[in-house]
Amino acid sequence: MKNRINKDLISNIEISEDMKTALYRNCIKGRSTADFAFRYSGLLSALIVIGVFVFTGIGASAAVLGVKARLENMSNEEYADYQYEVDNDTFVSVNEGESRALRDSEIRNIIRLEREYYDNNVYPENVLPHYETKSERSANELAYVEKDNLLYFPEDEMTDEQILQYIDHNAKKRYVNNQALIAEGIAPGVGMALESTPVVAGSRESEAVDEAKKIIKEFFKEDIDDSWIVLIDYFEEEQYEDEVVPAIYDIDIFQLGIGYGTQYTIRLQANDFTPTFINQNGYLETNDYKHYTKNEAEEYVEEGKAAMKKLLSERFGFDESNLTTIEYYFDEYSGNATPFINYRFMYNDQIVSVLYRIEDGKMVSYSLR
Hints:
Number of domains: 2
Order of helices and strands: HHHHHEEEHHEEEEEEHHHEEEE
Oligomer: single chain
Structural class: alpha+beta
Distance between the termini: 25 Å
Radius of gyration: 22 Å
Shape: globular
C-alpha cells in the first residue's frame, strides 16, 4: 500500500501532485485555505464536505444516508436560497460571513449536537430562515439576510434548536456547493475513504496501526475501537538534499463527524516503528484547558522543561549528556494567551519539538527530526 493519498479530496484543483499531497496534509492537520469547500477543512469536515453527500456505498451507515436524504429533499425554494448563498460566498474565512464569532460554549454545543445530527439524525424543528432584508428578522433570531450577505446570530447564546439550525444550514450550503461542482463535471467524493483503510491482519500495515493505537492509549488514555476511522499511508525512503528521509507510516485516526472533534496523527519509521510524530489535535484539547498570558506561562517554563526532559529520557531514550540546547516559545491563542509551552530540545544533531500543556502537565505533541 504505497503512497495511498486520498486525492479525491482535492482532485478538482489543477495543481501539481506534490502540492495536492501538501494540501491534503494541511487538511489533516486542521489548516484551511480560502476555497469554500476547504474553509471547513479539518479532516473530519473535509471528508463530510466533499464526500458524505455523494456517498452511497456499502459502508454508508443509515445515519449518513438519512442526512443525505434530508439534503436531497430540500424544497426548490430552500435550494434556491442556498444557491444564492453559495454564489455570493466570496469570504476568505467563515467568520467573515457571520455577524459575530461563535462563543466557546456554543462551539462545545456544536461538537455535541453535530454528533447527534450526523450520527443519530437529530434535526432542528424548523429550518433556518432566509430574508431579503434585515428588517424582516426578529430580535435574537438566527437567520441569513441576502442584502447583507450575512448570517446573523442572536446576541444571546444560541439555543440547542438554533445550533441544530446552524448545523443544518452548513450541511445544506455544502451540499448545494457540491451539486454545483457535479454539474461542472467534477465528482467530489468518488472513491473517498469514509471508512478505515483496509489492512490485512498480521501485515506490516496492521502492526503499524496497532502500534499507533498503543501510543495513543499511552499518552492520551484513549481506546481506539471500531467506531474510529483509521487511515494509513506509506511513504518510501527519499533523498532530500543531503539528508535521507526514512520510509514512514503516517496514521491518522478520527471519528467520523464534522467540525471540532479530536484527531490523532502518529508517524512511525517503517523499519522499527520508532515514532517521529505524535499529535493530538482538536478544539477541546486547546479550549477546554486554562489559558495563560505570556507572563503567567513564564512561571511554568522550568517545571515544564524538567517534566519534558524526563519524559524524553525515560520514554524515548534520549541521552541527557547529549542535550546541548533547550529553547522555548509561546503560540498566542484567544485573548493573547495560550494553554501551551513549545519546547525545542537539541541532542547533538537531533531536534525534538514538544508541545506541553500547562494546566495538566501533559505532552500533546512530539516531533523528531
